[in-house]
Amino acid sequence: MDHFLQAAIDEAKKGLDEGGIPIGSVIVHQGKIIGRGHNRRVQQGSPILHGEMDAFENAGRQTAQVYRECVLYTTLSPCSMCSGAILLYEIPRIIIGENKTFMGEEELLRSRGVQLEVLQDQTCIDMMQAFIQQRPELWNEDIGV
Questions:
Q1: Which listed residue (11, 18, 52, 98) is catalytic?
Q2: What would the pLDDT profile of 79-95 be if each residue is shown by its tens digit?
Q3: What are phi and psi of 95, to 5 degrees?
Q4: 59 by DSSP, 3-state: which?
């Protein structure tokens, strides 16, 4: 397995261990992780701390050029909020763990020139399916249902 996807999975597991939603993300620039994060909506009482948003926050202030050279790894297909941040910072490539449990704004991202690779990683699928089954109310809250 790609070690950057594994880092995103590790972040997702941290979120689950903290009582949150198991979605993780890392932002990679020139072969190094510059930002990592996991969904912390529950832990922080935040409406916006999805995995990708947390990774952006933890990457800190970067130049536009740095972001244009990054690859973002995420365990789950990015929602509209996270996709907006991806487009804003012109991240050119996204590696997605899976989109079976949730299909985000992949069509929008592709239409704007973002290269997507969806892996359908079984670890990511199993983690989300188990979570959705065990905590449907929390999952529905997270995706705005």
A1: 52
A2: 999 999 999 999 999 99
A3: -105, 120
A4: helix
Amino acid at 127: M
DSSP class of 113: T
pLDDT at 1: 64
The whole-angstrom separation of Cα 132 and Cα 67 is: 32
Residue 20 has pLDDT above 90, yes or no: yes
The distance of Cα 89 from the centroid of its chain, to the nearest Å, equals: 15
- Rounded to whole angstroms, the Cα distance separating 71 from 3 reads 13
Q: Residue 35's closest CA among 13, 4, 64?
A: 4
Tokens representing 16 are 């689950």
- Is the separation of the CB atoms in 89 and 56 below 8 Å? yes
Q: What gap in Å lies between CA 14 and CA 20, rounded to an integer? A: 8
When the pLDDT of each residue in the chain is averaged and rounded to a whole number, the result is 95
Read off the pLDDT of each residue in 97-114 and give the average, rounded to a whole number: 97
Please indicate whether residue 117 is annotated as part of the active site. no
